[in-house]
Prior knowledge:
Elements: E1 21-33, E2 36-52, E3 62-72, E4 76-86, E5 89-100, E6 116-127, E7 129-131, E8 137-149, E9 156-159, E10 164-168, E11 170-184, E12 187-198, E13 204-215, E14 219-230, E15 236-248
Antiparallel strand pairs: 1-2, 1-15, 2-3, 3-4, 4-5, 5-6, 6-8, 7-8, 8-11, 9-10, 11-12, 12-13, 13-14, 14-15
Amino acid sequence: MKSFNFLIISLVINISSIAALAQLTSVSLAFRNYPLAGDLSASYKYEGMIWDHRAESNASKFSYWQLVVGADVDGIVEFAANYYPISFLRLSAAVGGTYRYYNIPSFNCNVVNCQGFLSRNRVGAAFLGAFGEKNEWLVIPEYNLLWLGDAQNSLPIGDESENLIGGASADIMDRYQILAGKKIKNQMFGIFVRQAQFRLSGQHNEFQVLLDKINWSDTDLTLGVGRYSSDLYLPGITFFALYTWHVGQSVGFF
């Protein structure tokens, strides 16, 4: 079993509905053909306002907090706390881990630690930039610093989420991504770029796709085509689909 993450693509951007306290539950189903991967994940968000200085001319002047619990079928569980000092800037800290109850086809589990528990802790930041007459142009860069490890095993760690092999017992990962595009009615057309790299092993991957995201009242569908490459896979054309169902509302924009 393999999983993959499109953290920015699956955002629920909700500009018209803002509440003082909110809950949002989401379930996502994803598929990618190269490298072959699929994922079923769920998350629950509980949010509240810190301060609110919005005006008719500026709807972004508010601050809020967000608690998130997420899990998916490949054994990843994460508990995150997000702080928005202003609505378009997110600061994150999370603890979690993966219990690998399966063999990972990408790795030779005789020489790579790809079974049992792997801790996954991270800090990160994301920014939402909106431009144009109706804020229809969006730019969302995000950076995450991750610590992955298993103190009980001296083999190099295998990360099934990014399909990369890290250093012995533990490693640190830098993960960068950016989404840029334009909203037209209930659709968004854009480009998504993502890169991840382990600091000790030096292994990295790259992912660049053109995408079309369609929003309905409580679901959205994202389709994309682009290029994937890594130290374990030759560069190749990749297609992906991401379907998300959500219920509830969010305090903020993302």
